[in-house]
Design a protein that fits this description.
By secondary structure, the protein is mostly beta strands. The chain is built from one helix and eleven strands.
């Protein structure tokens, strides 16, 4: 007497109460009504093997499970996955076909394609996503992310650019010491107000980078000039006047040969040494024009 499959009811097993967030049991509630070839409902003990395939005919089962059930008016009720666990991903969206084998008979045909309801088993991955779970693009928004739960390891390298930072978001405490380089500073960004007292030292100034226009008037006095460092090339023409020359500071070594002219000598400035018994003194060297005839052609001291 060959059993006939009249009805299959396959439902996802009831999950735990909604108040407890957890993965639903990985089992399916299954019912079928079996009759013999004459249409008479089966009653009593019956062996039922349930198989899942990825094709409507042929091929090997993706999963199977055998139950010793009891038929009541032809109805058998099974919990699929209670004896052999359903594989992860078996309901991944691809077509699946269910087949039954009762007792020693051959597998019943045709296989029945499973439609929407069994794929509710996929919802188990919503509560516990696995590494292989594919998440649709733009599915997760900021509302889904718990405040303060993102850490450095959650960000891909170079994923945060200037357009991701709000104005004033980066503080001094966020910048590691020594990390700001010349290329990071915009031209003209560092003004006097940005420099701390005594923060600029000699080593911070490149050779030849300070020009006259960079120095405020009357900021350099004698204490700022290294002794002996002012050369002739440093003095502008006419820059040294009488007031700048200390008394008795110029001797003959400072006077270029042949540069003293009549206009440089004051009246009565040239003295003739006078020998005395105790010392030599200077007398004015004064030249007078002679009024005597015999000396009319010369001068007399």
């Amino acid at each position: 007497m060959r059993p006939q499959l009249l009805t299959i009811v396959l439902l996802a097993a009831a999950a735990a109460p909604a108040l407890r967030a957890q993965s639903p049991p990985r089992q399916l509630h299954f019912q079928a009504r079996l009759t013999d070839a004459s249409g008479v409902a089966l009653n009593g003990a019956v062996a039922v093997e349930v198989r899942l395939y990825d094709a409507p005919a042929g091929g090997a089962p993706l999963w199977s499970e055998s139950h010793n059930a009891t038929a009541l008016s032809g109805v058998v009720t099974l919990s699929l996955g209670s004896l052999t666990a359903l594989p992860d991903g078996i309901f991944d969206g691809a077509a699946r076909y269910l087949a039954l084998r009762v007792g020693a008979d051959a597998e019943m045909t045709p296989r029945r394609q499973l439609l929407a309801v069994p794929y509710a088993a996929r919802s188990g991955t919503v509560a516990a996503l696995t590494a292989g779970t594919t998440i649709a693009n733009d599915l997760i928004t900021t509302a889904h992310v718990l405040d303060g739960s993102l850490v450095g390891n959650d960000f891909a390298n170079n994923s945060i650019g200037p357009n991701k930072l709000s104005v004033g978001a980066v503080l001094s405490a966020n910048i590691a010491d020594g990390q700001v380089q010349n290329v990071d500073i915009a031209d003209g960004a560092v003004g006097a107000s940005k420099l701390g007292p005594s923060s600029v030292t000699t080593v911070a100034i490149a050779n030849g980078t300070i020009f006259g226009v960079k120095i405020a008037n009357e900021t350099i006095d004698g204490s700022k000039i290294l002794d002996g460092s002012i050369g002739a090339a440093d003095l502008a023409n006419g820059a040294v006047g009488t007031a700048q020359i200390a008394p008795d500071s110029i001797d003959h070594t400072k006077i270029l040969n042949g540069t003293i002219t009549t206009f440089d000598i004051g009246d009565g400035a040239v003295m003739k040494p006078v020998e005395t018994a105790t010392k030599r003194s200077r007398m004015p060297k004064v030249f007078h024009a002679s009024t005597e005839p015999e000396a009319a052609s010369g001068l007399r001291a």
